């Protein structure tokens, strides 16, 4: 009896699937490689593998609308140049696989031969290394496909990051400015931390009661909490040299007179006013010997726990009428305020909304209260113009966003101050953050305007004389601008404007 090998029909298994032949002679007829005994003994694996490959042993690639292991592959473009989106679905329509495949154009753009691949240049007189030697083979060079260059995005980033090798002096300058900018939230955080500790309650409760009911240090004019050691600390030299800031004197001031300094412009945070009149970093005591100056700020700052004590130690006082009258009528060389001065940032919160680089818009026409106080107290008026104060921050334009400006004015009317939407630089970058830019601030102290005292502390001031002194003050301020704008405001985009 002659035994014949199984036909193709005999190799069909259940469901019509084709079993891969295990006999070596049958496998040779179908151009199949020999199989091990373990592989030949597994008919299920043979049928699946043989059915997938077919007789010629080729497998489907599943690209386009073909079949991938029984799944339909749908292809569509997402980007004309870079990628193709492939979604492979089963026969029941359920999504099984999603993949991204580079397009042919994108693949071609990545390919380069070994001859065009970048290599390090070899200096003259140096022997070429093995990888630098050009191949003399007649075979064509293999194509290479390169991915993206890691870290290349840092070079085109919109944010400029500070280098790691910044000198220690500049780091200390940044630390000083960071401290001054964040003192209120720092002291508030410390206060709430103490409130969370029950052991501190016996101290905090009397302290808060004293602040709310009994404290008068910010308005009594005695300056009893003022610390000259703190004001003269070298820490503030680092603060002032950050910008850097300079204080300039046009004429000497007599130490036997009283003075009200009007600081312009307000800017965002009035860094120049703090450096010049709240510290000795710029040498106020050397330029104006015999004069004790006090920088005035909002009375609400002296209701902030812990921060108020820090502000009093720096020699700050309230900008209220009571505070100004007490400061200019107590102490000094004769016990009646001679040789004392106060500094008021005239424009206030309203002017901060116009603090934009390379421009100077002042709120002054409607501000006559400080002139009236000067006439009542017999204090000379001294205009102060800070070139560069508005350059320290960038601010959202109120013309382009009028609804923001309206909201800021509502906040100012309700709370007495407003919050400009501003930004500058950060601690570790030069483009995003709340720290001011490193730009020059030049504080120029103008010539004093002699004032004849009228009315006393509660008397009436002649309106005509009030307007006359106010106009003299405005003219002196304009003289300061015209005299020094070409020296300290060379990049200006306009002239000084008095808007209100």
Automatic annotation (TrEMBL):
<feature type="compositionally biased region" description="Polar residues">
    <location>
        <begin position="92"/>
        <end position="101"/>
    </location>
</feature>
<keyword id="KW-0444">Lipid biosynthesis</keyword>
<keyword id="KW-0472">Membrane</keyword>
<dbReference type="Pfam" id="PF03982">
    <property type="entry name" value="DAGAT"/>
</dbReference>
<feature type="region of interest" description="Disordered">
    <location>
        <begin position="1"/>
        <end position="74"/>
    </location>
</feature>
<protein>
    <recommendedName>
        <fullName>Diacylglycerol O-acyltransferase</fullName>
        <ecNumber>2.3.1.20</ecNumber>
    </recommendedName>
</protein>
<comment type="function">
    <text>Catalyzes the terminal and only committed step in triacylglycerol synthesis by using diacylglycerol and fatty acyl CoA as substrates.</text>
</comment>
<comment type="similarity">
    <text>Belongs to the diacylglycerol acyltransferase family.</text>
</comment>
<keyword id="KW-0808">Transferase</keyword>
<feature type="region of interest" description="Disordered">
    <location>
        <begin position="86"/>
        <end position="149"/>
    </location>
</feature>
<keyword id="KW-0443">Lipid metabolism</keyword>
<keyword id="KW-1133">Transmembrane helix</keyword>
<keyword id="KW-0256">Endoplasmic reticulum</keyword>
<comment type="pathway">
    <text>Lipid metabolism.</text>
</comment>
<dbReference type="GO" id="GO:0019432">
    <property type="term" value="P:triglyceride biosynthetic process"/>
</dbReference>
<keyword id="KW-0012">Acyltransferase</keyword>
<feature type="transmembrane region" description="Helical">
    <location>
        <begin position="177"/>
        <end position="201"/>
    </location>
</feature>
<feature type="compositionally biased region" description="Polar residues">
    <location>
        <begin position="1"/>
        <end position="10"/>
    </location>
</feature>
<comment type="pathway">
    <text>Glycerolipid metabolism; triacylglycerol biosynthesis.</text>
</comment>
<keyword id="KW-0812">Transmembrane</keyword>
<dbReference type="GO" id="GO:0005789">
    <property type="term" value="C:endoplasmic reticulum membrane"/>
</dbReference>
<keyword id="KW-0319">Glycerol metabolism</keyword>
<dbReference type="InterPro" id="IPR007130">
    <property type="entry name" value="DAGAT"/>
</dbReference>
<feature type="compositionally biased region" description="Basic and acidic residues">
    <location>
        <begin position="20"/>
        <end position="32"/>
    </location>
</feature>
<dbReference type="GO" id="GO:0004144">
    <property type="term" value="F:diacylglycerol O-acyltransferase activity"/>
</dbReference>
<dbReference type="GO" id="GO:0006071">
    <property type="term" value="P:glycerol metabolic process"/>
</dbReference>
């Amino acid at each position: 009896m002659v035994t014949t090998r199984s036909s193709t029909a005999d190799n069909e298994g259940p469901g019509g699937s084709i079993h891969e032949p295990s006999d070596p002679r049958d496998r040779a007829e179908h151009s199949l490689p020999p199989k091990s005994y373990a592989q030949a003994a597994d008919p299920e694996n043979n049928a699946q593998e043989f059915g997938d490959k077919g007789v010629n042993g080729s497998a489907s690639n599943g690209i386009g609308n073909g079949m991938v292991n029984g799944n339909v592959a749908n292809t569509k473009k997402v980007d004309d140049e870079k990628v193709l989106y492939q979604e492979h679905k089963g026969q029941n329509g359920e999504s099984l696989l999603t993949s991204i495949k580079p397009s042919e154009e994108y693949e071609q753009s990545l390919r380069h031969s070994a001859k065009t691949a970048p290599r390090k240049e070899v200096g003259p007189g140096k022997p070429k290394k093995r990888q630098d030697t050009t191949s003399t083979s007649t075979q064509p060079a293999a194509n290479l496909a390169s991915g993206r260059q890691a870290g290349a995005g840092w070079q085109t980033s919109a944010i400029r990051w500070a280098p790691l090798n910044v000198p220690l002096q500049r780091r200390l300058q940044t630390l000083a400015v960071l401290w001054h900018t964040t003192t209120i939230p720092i002291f508030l955080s410390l206060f709430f931390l103490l409130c969370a500790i029950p052991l501190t309650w016996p101290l905090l409760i009397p302290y808060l009661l004293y602040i709310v009911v009994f404290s008068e240090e910010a308005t009594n004019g005695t300056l009893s909490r003022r610390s000259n050691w703190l004001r003269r600390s070298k820490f503030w030299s680092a603060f002032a040299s950050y910008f850097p800031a300079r204080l300039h004197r046009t004429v000497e001031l007599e130490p036997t007179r009283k003075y009200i300094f009007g600081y312009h412009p307000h800017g965002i945070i009035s860094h120049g006013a703090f450096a010049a009149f709240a510290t000795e970093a710029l040498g106020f005591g050397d330029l104006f010997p015999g004069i004790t100056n006090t920088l005035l700020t909002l009375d609400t700052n002296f209701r902030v726990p812990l921060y108020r004590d820090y502000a009093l130690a720096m020699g700050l006082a309230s900008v209220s009428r009571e505070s100004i009258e007490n400061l200019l009528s107590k102490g000094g060389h004769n016990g009646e305020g001679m040789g004392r001065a106060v500094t008021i940032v005239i424009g206030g919160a309203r002017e901060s909304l116009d603090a934009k680089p390379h421009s100077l818009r002042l709120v002054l026409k409607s501000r006559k209260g400080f002139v009236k106080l000067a006439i009542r107290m017999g204090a000379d008026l001294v205009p102060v113009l800070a070139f560069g104060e508005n350059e320290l921050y960038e601010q959202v334009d109120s013309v382009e966003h009028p609804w923001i400006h309206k909201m800021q004015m509502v906040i100012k009317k309700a709370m007495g101050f407003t919050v400009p939407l501003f930004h500058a630089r950060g601690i570790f970058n030069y483009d995003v953050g709340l720290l001011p830019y490193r730009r020059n601030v030049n504080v120029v102290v103008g010539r004093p305007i002699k004032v004849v005292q009228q009315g006393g502390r509660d008397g009436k001031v002649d309106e005509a004389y009030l307007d006359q002194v106010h106009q003299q003050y405005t003219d002196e301020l304009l003289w300061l601008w015209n005299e020094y704008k070409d020296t300290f405001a060379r990049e200006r985009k306009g002239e000084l404007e008095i808007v209100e």
